């Protein structure tokens, strides 16, 4: 049975929730679908109900305020729900959702995609060892459960997230063995003009770094983790100094630790946009492959709107404003009127986007990172495919991510290629002597998320099938 709305929003983070609220305030009947228990997304993730008391942070305060607004609004939230298929229809859009083990169909005149971003982690030897966790995954642990990755942690990665994670580990009582970042101090200085536009965030970041220095935590600038030691758990990491191209160049140094937080930036989660019929373009300054969308959230598809990091990595502040702009545009479309020009909001969005893009620029991968992988380094975790497996398939004639996927099942596991496709694209580009911008991701196909066959079957019972009598001999 279908449920009919004016607008369906996929994603309840800063962008999606603000788009839904803005459209609802304009008088539209809005549904919002999200995989988490409560709105807030990754950045403003809600605390686990078992956490009775915790010190507030800027993120928790923003998230609590947003959740209160959603609770007091007319937005109908489908929490802990998975969107697995999107189709255009005569009435607009049909969105197929898995909710409590059953498939629910939502029909809407307009669809807003606010699917956010996912983390890119550069594979290195040992990165699948228990005790290794992504930087973004670590922030989810901190915000939701106040949990630590270990007792003594090396934090490695690009951009501001590496310092945020290290700071949070210390705030929650853990020990940071070292911070390891491919970025140099000079690269951070180049980002300073954009950073001064957000003095609040600039001061906060400076406090993170100052706290680490005062605590005696070593910061290895222009270094990367080259190998993780340990069989059943992490016992330490080996780091190497990097060239300007981020290739290892220098004597290895061992750091003892029982855990590692590792990340190399964010990339837009664009599979839903692909499934809805949008073409992707490569924008290194926006995190990789992303759909074409303007500041008002409009796309080339009728009744389809995008906002937030799913349209390019510009940061949480820009995503929040982009969501409001998109909510205004989508609600005007539903009402059949021309959208107004909200110049103040547009200007605020551009300012926030400049800051976010300056931070994204610190995580643009360089070709030298690929040399951190050995032949037996796992690339596709779901199918246990190594670098040598991928390279052999490329050498055998696979010239696209789709052909590698067809030949090896890379990207056909539970994660749907979210961990491996970026690395596979880079390996193909390297083999062809080209750029990663020449190697698009494979086409998106349903289901967007794993779904039980029983849910698709619904009330169907095999025992109800009429079985004809055997034909006479």
Describe this structure in words.
The chain is of the alpha/beta class and 473 residues long. It folds into 3 domains: 2-118 and 267-360, FAD/NAD(P)-binding domain (3-Layer(bba) Sandwich), CATH 3.50.50; 121-264, FAD/NAD(P)-binding domain (3-Layer(bba) Sandwich); 373-438, Arc Repressor Mutant, subunit A, CATH 1.10.10. It is 32% helix and 23% strand. It has helices spanning 14-25, 58-71, 135-145, 161-171, 185-190, 192-195, 199-214, 271-275, 316-335, 343-361, 387-395, 401-408, 421-432, 453-457; strands spanning 2-10, 30-33, 76-78, 81-89, 92-99, 102-113, 117-119, 132-134, 152-157, 175-181, 219-221, 223-229, 236-241, 253-256, 259-263, 266-268, 280-283, 288-291, 304-306, 378-380, 385-386. The strands form 6 sheets. Strands 1, 2, 3, 4, 5, 6 and 19 form a 7-stranded mixed beta sheet that branches. Strands 8-15-9-10-11 form a 5-stranded parallel beta sheet. Strand 2 (30-33), helix 2 and strand 3 (76-78) form a beta-alpha-beta unit. The longest helix has 20 residues, at 316-335. It is globular and about 70 Å long. The two termini are 45 Å apart. The model has no long low-confidence stretch (mean pLDDT 94).
Shape call = globular
Q: Approximately how much beta-strand content do the residues carry?
A: 15-25%
CATH architecture of the largest domain: 3-Layer(bba) Sandwich
Roughly how much helix do the residues carry, as a percent range?
25-40%
Protein name: Thioredoxin reductase
Organism: Epibacterium ulvae
Keywords: Oxidoreductase
GO molecular function: oxidoreductase activity
